[in-house]
Amino acid sequence: MEELLLKILERIQEEQFSFLGFEDLYHMGLEAMKTDCKLGVKYLKLLSDECEKVMQKQHLQENEIKRAVCST
Questions:
Q1: What is the Cα–Cα distance from 56 to 66, expressed in whole angstroms?
Q2: What is the distance between the alpha carbons of residues 40 and 15, in angstroms, rounded to a whole number?
Q3: What pTM was estimated for this model as a whole?
C-alpha cells in the first residue's frame, strides 16, 4: 500500500496541478487508514502539504478552486 501511495505522491510532485492525482491520493489515504492508520495519516498530511504548495503558487484560478470544492 505504501508503495502505491508513494507513486501517487511522486506523480503529484512531478506534474503540474492535476486534480485527479490529488483526489487519488486522498481516497487511497482513506483506504490505507482502514488497515494502517499511521500510514494513512502520513500520506494525508503529505497531501495537505502539496495542496498548500499549489495554493501558494496560485496555479489555481478562483473559479477552479470553487469548482473543485463544490464538486466534492
A1: 16
A2: 22
A3: 0.76
